[in-house]
């Protein structure tokens, strides 16, 4: 087992545990129980109520900065909203307003929007690789007034041209490999963040990461990319007209 595991600086991996139990002749049922315990240790569960009590929306936005800065590759799947790193200020404000109505959510809306916009600076850092996968439905939902959504779509088209950004859109009529449940963010091959209505999950188990990676790639294959993805955005802009 690696020295970092022996000294407590790093949690043992599943492979570490299997090798150790084999070395000491551990029965199979005990090995399975230990693997289950290890898996549970590698899932961090944080309720929104607790997180917002510790600092509000802006603090949560700032907490994302080192995670995004430390990852070379970030894969994002959002089925119902435009991803935060691609949001316009007004669109983000309506997102935060909606969340503020839920129990335990932060109400520092202006500061949360400001911090989210600051987070977007990471998109201009050379060497980064952001793959954003969104559904066409996410760009249609009127979670904000139509003029705000139109401005958001214009911003999306512009930001898709950044060298660090690869945008893919799942059309409404796409043949899907299977159903989807929720959005998630994958950071390199070490972390998956999942937001539920009541909490945020930080998944570090290799099996979980592999599952989400396969899920992402299967939908990435079903999506439109490059000019085809941007064409969907422009088609929606035409559908929304020129109202301001």
Structure description:
Helices cover 48% and strands 16% of the residues. It has 10 helices and 8 strands. With 244 residues, it is α+β, with helices and mostly antiparallel strands. The chain folds into 2 domains: 1-41, no CATH class; 44-240, Endonuclease, Chain A. The longest helix is centred in the last third of the chain and has 17 residues, at 206-222. The radius of gyration is 20 Å and the shape is globular. The N and C termini lie far apart (62 Å). The protein has an 8-stranded mixed beta sheet, with helices on both faces. Helix 2 packs antiparallel against helix 3 and helix 5 (56-70) packs parallel to helix 7.
The CATH class of the largest domain turns out to be Alpha Beta
Order of strands in the sheet with most strands: 1-7-6-5-2-3-4-8
Please work out how many helical segments DSSP would assign: 10
How many beta-strand elements? 8
From N to C, what is the helix and strand string? HHHEHHEHHEHEEEEHEH
CATH topology of the largest domain: Endonuclease, Chain A
**What's the architecture of the largest domain in CATH terms?**
2-Layer Sandwich
| Helix fraction by DSSP (H/I, runs of at least 4) | 40-55%
Number of domains: 2
Report low-confidence residues grouped into runs of 5 or more. 1-10
- Beta-strand content estimate: 15-25%
Question: Rg from C-alpha positions?
Answer: 20 Å
């Amino acid at each position: 087992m690696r020295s970092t595991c022996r000294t407590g600086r790093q949690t043992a991996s599943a492979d570490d545990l299997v090798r150790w139990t084999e070395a000491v002749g551990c029965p199979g049922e005990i090995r399975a129980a230990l693997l289950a315990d290890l898996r549970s240790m590698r899932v961090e569960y944080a309720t929104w109520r607790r997180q917002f009590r510790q600092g509000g929306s802006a603090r949560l936005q700032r907490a994302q900065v080192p995670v995004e800065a430390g990852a070379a590759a970030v894969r994002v799947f959002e089925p119902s909203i435009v991803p935060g790193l691609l949001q316009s200020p007004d669109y983000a404000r309506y997102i935060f307003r909606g969340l503020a109505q839920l129990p335990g959510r932060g109400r520092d809306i202006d500061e949360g929007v400001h911090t989210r916009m600051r987070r977007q600076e990471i998109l201009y850092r050379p060497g980064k690789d952001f793959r954003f996968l969104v559904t066409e439905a996410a760009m249609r939902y009127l979670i904000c007034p139509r003029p705000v959504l139109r401005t958001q779509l214009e911003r999306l088209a512009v930001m898709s041209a950044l060298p660090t950004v690869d945008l893919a859109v799942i059309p409404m009529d796409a043949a899907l490999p299977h159903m989807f449940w929720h959005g998630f963010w994958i950071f390199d091959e070490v972390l998956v963040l999942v937001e539920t209505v009541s909490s945020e999950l930080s998944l570090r188990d290799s099996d979980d990461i592999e599952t989400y990676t396969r899920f992402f790639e299967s939908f990435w294959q079903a999506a439109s990319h490059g000019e085809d993805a941007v064409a969907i955005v422009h088609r929606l802009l035409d559908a929304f007209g020129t109202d301001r």
